[in-house]
């Protein structure tokens, strides 16, 4: 579905991504894990057209995304929820969720898309008339993901969906991700904390200093000393004890 190969991206003269490659298949949940500054957000923003690569390819359903604007990529079937959530504070929760149905029509009706979004995070129904500025951090995360889902995408790109949240909220986010996957949507998540990777993830990529150093099953990552050093922040010797 999404195939990124040999992607190189510079920001203000500094090389941030150094020829990374990753893939997300239909219906899969795939995670990109790395420390802060490793290049995770740049990878997602490049796929969405916010960053122009120096070289490499980004293809979605065998169509190149290079040179397309974010709104064009969204209309092709990719939803994006940024780390900052970027909820419209002056709009209500209902208006925030409904916005994609106003600007991105597709083969599914607005009602179908909204019903799916609210079924993933049913708590949002209680806040439909509340302004976006009145939400907690966890509620904004849910709203941001629900809004991306209301686009009716085939693939969701989620940047740090659990970063900075209360441990009491994280299970609700994980349950929402499980529901999204059950609906048949593919999900690509960037996370800095390996412990936030859902147990049902299909595949894991680990990025360090702009390079992919591991690709495989999440359980396999913990048996690789170099990967453990990155994802756990401890030495390989300590990880083996």
Indicate the mean pLDDT: 90
| Number of beta strands | 10
What would you report as the Rg, rounded to the nearest angstrom? 18 Å
From the N-terminal CA to the C-terminal CA, the straight-line distance is 40 Å
Strand fraction equals 25-35%
Total discrete domains: 1
Fourth-level CATH superfamily: P-loop containing nucleotide triphosphate hydrolases
Shape verdict: globular
Low-pLDDT runs of 5+ residues are: 234-241
Largest sheet: 6 strands, mixed
- Strand arrangement in the largest pleated sheet: 6-7-8-3-9-10
Order of helices and strands: EEEHEEHEHHHEHEEEHHH
Could you tell me the CATH topology label. Rossmann fold
CATH class: Alpha Beta
CATH architecture: 3-Layer(aba) Sandwich
Structural class, please? Answer: alpha/beta
Number of helices: 9
> Which percent bin holds the helix content?
25-40%
SSE layout:
Layout: E1 2-11, E2 14-24, E3 29-33, H1 40-47, E4 55-60, E5 63-64, H2 70-76, E6 78-81, H3 93-103, H4 110-120, H5 137-149, E7 155-159, H6 170-182, E8 186-191, E9 203-208, E10 211-216, H7 218-221, H8 225-232, H9 236-240
Parallel strand pairs: 3-8, 3-9, 6-7, 7-8
Antiparallel strand pairs: 1-2, 1-4, 4-5, 9-10
Helix pairs in contact: 3-4, 3-5, 4-5, 5-6
């Amino acid at each position: 579905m999404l195939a990124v190969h040999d992607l190189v991206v510079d920001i203000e003269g500094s090389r941030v991504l150094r020829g990374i490659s990753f893939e997300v298949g239909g219906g899969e949940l795939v995670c990109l894990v790395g420390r802060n500054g490793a290049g995770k957000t740049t990878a997602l923003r490049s796929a969405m057209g916010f960053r122009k690569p120096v070289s490499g390819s980004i293809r979605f359903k065998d169509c190149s995304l290079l040179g397309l604007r974010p709104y064009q990529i969204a209309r092709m079937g990719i939803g994006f929820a940024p780390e900052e959530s970027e909820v419209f504070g002056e709009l209500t929760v209902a208006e925030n969720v409904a916005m994609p149905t106003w600007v991105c029509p597709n083969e599914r009706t607005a009602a179908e898309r909204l019903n799916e979004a609210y079924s993933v995070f049913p708590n949002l129904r209680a806040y439909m008339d509340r302004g976006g500025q009145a939400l907690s951090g966890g509620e904004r995360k849910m709203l941001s993901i629900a809004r991306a889902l209301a686009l009716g995408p085939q693939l969701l790109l989620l940047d740090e969906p659990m970063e900075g949240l209360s441990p009491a909220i994280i299970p609700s986010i994980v349950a929402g991700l499980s529901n999204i996957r059950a609906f048949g949507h593919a999900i690509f998540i960037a996370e800095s904390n390996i412990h936030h990777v859902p147990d049902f993830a299909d595949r894991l990529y680990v990025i360090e200093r702009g390079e992919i150093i591991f690709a495989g099953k999440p359980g396999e990552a913990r048996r690789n000393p170099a990967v453990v050093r990155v994802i756990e922040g401890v030495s390989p010797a300590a990880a083996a004890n």
